[in-house]
């Protein structure tokens, strides 16, 4: 299952956006209201959305154009990727995408909430 968020413009330099996204404690600022959030280490955090189980995300990869977070558990393998493109020195285009390996029943159940979640993260990222 692959879900792509809308492309957004962040009024920050690309390097600043990468720094923001690679500091896992900053994800608390992007979480929807009412979400549980806890930093578990330098590269891992836990979050839970209403009606969904707790999920641990770990920083997996960082390049000059991309930040990838992945599930810390093999039970629900997925990644959350931020693709970044410099537009101007102080403007960055960002697009979040979610890719997960779920059985058809699970995919049907989580597609709506995850699509909404990716949209909410994108909206808040545009405001940093």
From TrEMBL:
<dbReference type="InterPro" id="IPR023393">
    <property type="entry name" value="START-like_dom_sf"/>
</dbReference>
<protein>
    <submittedName>
        <fullName>SRPBCC family protein</fullName>
    </submittedName>
</protein>
């Amino acid at each position: 299952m692959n879900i792509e968020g809308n492309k957004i413009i962040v009024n920050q330099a690309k390097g600043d956006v990468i720094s923001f996204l690679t500091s896992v404690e900053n994800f608390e600022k992007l979480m929807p209201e009412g979400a549980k959030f806890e930093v578990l280490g330098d590269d891992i955090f836990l979050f839970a959305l209403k009606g969904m189980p707790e999920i641990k995300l770990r920083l997996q990869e960082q390049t000059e154009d991309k930040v990838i977070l992945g599930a810390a558990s093999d039970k629900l393998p997925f990644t959350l990727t931020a693709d970044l493109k410099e537009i101007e020195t102080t403007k960055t285009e960002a697009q979040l995408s979610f890719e997960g390996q779920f059985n058809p029943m699970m995919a049907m159940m989580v597609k709506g909430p995850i699509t909404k979640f990716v949209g909410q993260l994108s909206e808040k990222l545009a405001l940093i």
